[in-house]
Amino acid sequence: MATLHTRSAARAMMAPSVVLLLAWMVVPLAMTIYFSFLRYNLLMPGMEEWVGFDNYRYFLTDPAFFQAIFNTLAIVLGVLLITVLGGIGLALLLDQPMFGQGIVRILVIAPFLIMPTVAALVWKNMFMNPVNGLFAYLARSVGLPPFDFLNNAPLLSIILIVAWQWLPFATLILLTALQSLDEEQKEAAQMDGAGAWSRFTYLTLPHLSRAITVVILIHTIFLLSVFAEILVTTNGGPGTQSTNLTFLVYAQALLQFDVGGASAGGIIAVILANIVAFFLMRMIGKTLEA
Amino acid sequence: MGSIALRNVSKVFGAHTVIPAIDLDISDGEFVVFVGPSGCGKSTLLRLIAGLEDVSGGKILIDGKDATELAPAKRRLSMVFQSYALYPHMSVRSNIAFPLKMAGEDQASIDRKVADAARVLNLTDYLDRKPRQLSGGQRQRVAIGRAIVRQPVAFLFDEPLSNLDAALRVNMRLEISQLHQQLKTTMVYVTHDQVEAMTMADKIVVLNKGNVEQVGTPLELYRRPDNLFVAGFIGSPKMNFITGEIARGHGAHTIGVRPEHIDLSTSAGAWRGTVGVAEHLGSDTFLHVAVDGVGTLTARVGGDFPVRHGDQVYLSPQEGRVHRFNDEGSAIR
Ligand SMILES: Nc1ncnc2c1ncn2[C@@H]1O[C@H](COP(=O)(O)OP(=O)(O)OP(=O)(O)O)[C@@H](O)[C@H]1O
Ligand SMILES: [Mg+2]
């Protein structure tokens, strides 16, 4: 957007969607904020009353809250780590000429097309189940006691499941970026005496930086609100060991019927998401402009 | 130091033979230009020498030693690509320093060599810019800088000037020639522009469909083309070819006369024709003349020759400047 003209044209073009988005967001947000200041329990209809910041105080001092924050961040960072590193690795592999490339690529994309609930159930019952699961079978076949993933390492299990779902997306984006790397640059580096590793660090990785940023951004947005996978596997447990913020808000509203408290939790989640978004945007601004 | 020899080198892509078998000797310090029409295998040949493609057969000797199986980096050659192939996220300085860094040189000597190269190529003021902040000519110079810091035994250029505008091309042509005088390193230069070939080369290799048609100095090729292809390819405007009765009169299947070797007259001459198009370049005029029973011939005359479209003129080939070819297209000498 080089000139003043194109910039204002761009603004005019964006205006309708911005207005729509605002309306879409402002109404629910206003209602949530309003509810968060009420004592509003579904078990006691008609008894709503203004309680000021009480809901926030209860929510923030709930020990489950800190656990949830930690879990939320752990899921985001853990999954990002796996998907970005794994995605780069897979993309590099898929970029190699090989037999059956088309089919292999489709297979790699497949997990992304499976619904989160289904994927999580498949993992829960077919892989991680300590009695019938594949992992338990493998462990037993080498003489080890089976490991009950969902009870003994609930957070790690959820991170694994979610990472499995999001890995294809990261791989796909990184693969297309990889394919746009100029062949002559690689050849020039080869003639300049750069080995495979140097070519990767000096050429491929900088070239991928934008794609990696995009992957991180998109993933973070979705990973902050992981829900289905938790609901169908661990239900937030044992205790609150795998409860993230989204799940905590859900539990507050629909298990404890405390709409006021849940609204306060929702607002806190929004604030946290904005803090994360702020840092993300700064990071993105830097890479995308460069 | 920088001699390169190809022995029976061939290249096949799948079922498609790009280079049947080539023998070629490039001696140390020579400026050799590969020239030929698009798709004739110039780039492929250069990439074979560079090691970016594997040969399908034959041997490549660099400096007398067999380099056929050597990795590109081990051949001590530098290549300048048509697209420049600069590393976009590195500054000009890092781009030029990259080969040295990969060779594991210490920082002080890297800095010194980069500064030297930048001075030679007038890039000192741009060292901290990124490639995309440079003009085409500057980018080209960075690519050359990256090639010269390694002090290779030979440079390989693949149409390095084809992305530049005409004026800049003439400039860079001169700069590369000067660089060659300075460094005295072997240079192999690929182009499909025969003016570049003529002006820069010590030795021209004319390629056609992967075959070497003729090797020689620019003037040799101009004066004594071995065959119709070379005769038609070298020289601008193209040589006129005449077959039939007139050629038989010269004892040949085809005769060729360069436009600059045709004398024009408005009163008398060997062939009579009508001026079709006159291209006035100022210093010269190219006349396209429709000659009765021969076809259209191009003739070069002085810029002030007074003819225009539709005029009758007489053409006569200059004595001793007529090239004769047999029915296989080879020159009769
Ligand atoms: N990787 C490849 N696979 C198959 N065919 C190829 C490959 N590279 C080149 N060719 C073919 O080899 C022939 C020679 O190509 P090359 O690039 O050497 O031509 P060139 O003389 O450099 O032409 P130009 O002047 O247009 O650059 C072409 O017919 C091309 O289609
Ligand atoms: Mg080419």
Automatic annotation (TrEMBL), chain A:
Pfam families, A to Z: BPD_transp_1
GO cellular component entries: plasma membrane
Transmembrane parts of this sequence: 12-37, 68-94, 106-123, 155-178, 211-233, 253-280
Main location: membrane
Alphabetized UniProt keyword annotations: Cell membrane, Membrane, Transmembrane, Transmembrane helix, Transport
Domain (ABC transmembrane type-1): residue spans on this chain: 69-280
Listed PROSITE patterns: ABC_TM1
Keyword check for Transport: yes
Family designation: Belongs to the binding-protein-dependent transport system permease family.
Membrane topology: Multi-pass membrane protein
Name of this protein: Sorbitol ABC transporter membrane protein /mannitol ABC transporter membrane protein
Intracellular or extracellular location(s): Cell membrane
Gene3D superfamilies per UniProt: MetI-like
Tree of life domain: Bacteria
GO biological process terms held by the UniProt record: transmembrane transport
TrEMBL record, chain B:
ABC transporter domain ranges (all copies): 4-234
UniProt cross-references to Pfam families, sorted A to Z: ABC_tran (PF00005), TOBE_2 (PF08402)
Topology with respect to the bilayer: Peripheral membrane protein
InterPro entries, per the entry: AAA+_ATPase (IPR003593), ABC_transporter-like_ATP-bd (IPR003439), ABC_transporter-like_CS (IPR017871), ABC_transpr_MalK-like (IPR015855), ABC_transpr_MalK/UgpC-like (IPR047641), Mo/tungstate-bd_C_term_dom (IPR008995), NA-bd_OB-fold (IPR012340), P-loop_NTPase (IPR027417)
GO CC field: ATP-binding cassette (ABC) transporter complex, substrate-binding subunit-containing; maltose transport complex
Places the protein is found: Cell inner membrane
Keyword Nucleotide-binding: yes
A GO term for molecular function: ATP binding
SMART domains, sorted: AAA
Record keywords: ATP-binding, Nucleotide-binding, Transport
Entry keyword annotation includes ATP-binding: yes
PANTHER family, alphabetized: MALTODEXTRIN IMPORT ATP-BINDING PROTEIN MSMX, MALTOSE_MALTODEXTRIN IMPORT ATP-BINDING PROTEIN MALK
Similarity remark: Belongs to the ABC transporter superfamily.
Protein name stated in the entry: Sorbitol ABC transporter ATP-binding protein /mannitol ABC transporter ATP-binding protein
Species for this entry: Mycoplana dimorpha
